[in-house]
What we know:
Number of strands of chain A: 7
Shape of chain A: elongated
Strand content of chain A: 5-15%
Number of helices of chain B: 6
Mean pLDDT of chain B: 59
Oligomer: heterodimer
Order of helices and strands of chain A: HEHHEEEEHHHEEHH
Helix content of chain B: 55-70%
Number of helices of chain A: 8
Amino acid sequence: MTTSINPAVSNRAWRACCVVLALALGAAGCVVQDERPMAPVVAQKATAEIPQAELLDVGVRMFDPNIPPDVAEQEKRGIYPDVRKAESRYMPVLLRDTLESTGQWGQVRVLPAASAGSDVNIDARILESDGSVLQLAVTVTDATGRTWLRKDYEGLADTRAYKDVPVKPRDPFDNVYATIANDLLAARNELTREQRVQVHQVANLRFASELAPYAFQPYLAHDPKRGTYAIARLPAEDDPVVQRMDRVHERDYALIDTLNEHYTNFGETIDDAYVNWRKYSHEELAAEAEAKRKALARGLLGAAAIIGGVMAGQNTNSSAGSAAATAAVIGGIYAFKRGLDMRSEIKMHGESLKQLGSSFQNEVQPSVVDIEGRTLELKGSAEQQYAEWRRLLRELYENETGLPATTAETTQPAAGKR
Amino acid sequence: MTAEDKRAEIDRRFDETFAVFDARMRKEQETISQERAGRDGSAGGSGAEGEGGDGTAGGGAANGDGANGDGSGGQGEEGAGEGASTGDGASGTGSEGGQGGDVAAGSGSQGGGGGVGGGAKGGGGPRDVPADIPDGRDDDIVARQLREAAMKETDPELRERLWEEYRKYKQSTQ
């Protein structure tokens, strides 16, 4: 028994099958995430003592949670507002701890969003965070208005952090924080010693100028167009207003330190639940991606078998060939259907992710509300004190100079607006 | 009054307000430490709930201090700080409202508040104010911020919690 096949048609069929098979194999080859252990990025530590005058304080402002206002968009992107709000407070604490651990900086503090700055200020927006991937848009500036870096950071979870081990593991995204710390260090090292000292002096003068502009603005050269600040001249250290201002500044630090205690406490409160959420979210995302991959591969393999079977059927004149072609088509349809059936599994993983998100959101929500309320209370009562200090500083200035404090404080002062 | 006398007077007021502020911070840090100790010591999940309670207590105390702050210029005689943990808040506030002037005049007149305990749950858009919430004319800066946060909040559950914080705060400042 012989089977004759039209060579031209056969070639076309073969090519079509090959394309589909290649797609199927390609899909099968897609892996969600490399599960091999990641090489840890180490935040570079100081090897020598840094002179006090050059030590720069760092303020890590509360991250921008980047929550889309549209609820449908939130659902589509798997964003749970309270989870994001919690992350926007939790992640700065991790970055602060990483920076502190290097010994390269002065005081590293987490600051409320939109607060007056430190010597060096870090702002970040959460672009993506789902337990598998962390993506942050980071901007670092200093008190003189110089931009140190503006960069997006992305990292995959180090899944060792999700394993159940007795010793607390690294954060799954430690590499991201360590990379930011190293970039920050590299940017600082590009400054001269004089520039570093000036950054600190400008930060102090800006603080003072915001509380008592009539007394301190003349010391600062501000270019509103470029958003830069420089020192015009330095005030005398024995100036009575300067001395009182220093005492006020100490209180400002105390306020931020207290707020930091709250943030640290908050981080510790949600830590276990957050790690668990990220762990299970990562697992579900991986399972969902695997199901999608399988569905695609099966669908494509089924399609390839159907195409091959149909083409072979058209070009065979034997009953055995025809039967084989029919079997290939049936098999293809079956495989194709199996691929479609995988969709229910994909959907199931999607639902699990939603449930996980909602459940963690409910768990973390009271802590978020608590920290928000406390921060507001603390800031609120501190603002009353700042208002009183502003008034006293003005009285002191007028008493010392015999001049009226003429610079109108028309703009909202940032100091005391922690 | 000579310039020297005036400077001494200003310094005295600085010292008073610093003392009040320092006491406020100390108290806040004590509260945080207690919470941390509580969480570390107590078993698991219930710790968090307990802390919530502590938190509001701390908040209440804090309010008293906040009130102190506005009037400290005038009175301050209590040497503020140390007394803070016992008597702080309310009394200082009432007597010192005048001094505060633009600072926080409202805090001296907290009589009006009241109405805590209503269960005005849910409903309405972000700007809707629950029926049991007073009109806010006597809100001090903290209450005002809580009120604004609640009014802006779109999530009903979160909004209600913020109102609850507002109620607690108002109650603690009466």
